[in-house]
Amino acid sequence: MSEELKLPDIDLDGRVVIMTGASRGLGRSMVVALAKTGARVVLAAPDIDALNGVAEEIKSAVGKGRALVVETDITDLKSCENCLAQTLDGFGGLDVLINNARRLHRGPGLPASGNSFLFWETPPDIYKQTVEVNVTGTFFMARTCAPYLIDQGFGKIINLTTSVHNFYGTKNSPYGVTKAAVDAETWIWAKDLANTGVTCNALLPGGACDSDPEREVKPGRNYLPVDVMNPVLVWLCSKNSDAVTGARYNGSLWDDALSPDDAAGACVEPASFRGME
Could you list the active site residues? Predict the structure, then answer.
């Protein structure tokens, strides 16, 4: 693993952030980084034991009272509603929703690689489950949190996506399909939220990360560090990004030699669909 990336000099004190998929990998790294920069974070995922481990890591780093564990199944609307209710009860508000939870098209007896089979070979249950987590779950969490954010006149929704070539790569269905849908959700929601004070942006690592122990390692391939999105995510959660919506940020393009605003600007990618510029 590479040396830990330097976080921008931004204070997120007072911010309340929900992170789905916070129990491992990219989500775990991101939510710890947010806590280290002052945010109070809600750890949402189905694996309560893993979430408690992340909460202990945060407690060791920044002390008590900064992490709230909420067992959450984002494919269940009532579970999403419970996550918001516990957030409001535990922290008194919400500022940022980060839709990080994802599913690669994997399952028992299937290859470990996320890009492993032709679409007609995809087991229907795996396709359905991937869509339920990546598309429907992202929608359920946003649908649950958006009315609260709109009512308070401020908030941020950040959707985790992937590189555009994964949308249409060979043997990358259904994962590529679902992440293309998440990009579409991002642009549509940004327009729907216009003039509400709530923004919606997309964030991607910019390549395969070393966060997945089940990944099929390809000889000679270099993986990005698990914390690759942390600097730009901190910026996106801050007041610096309040005027930005409908944009797509590539974490691998962050340059910490620049000011945070300039570094974030350098991370902006062109819209993934023609006509969205």
Answer: 163, 175, 179
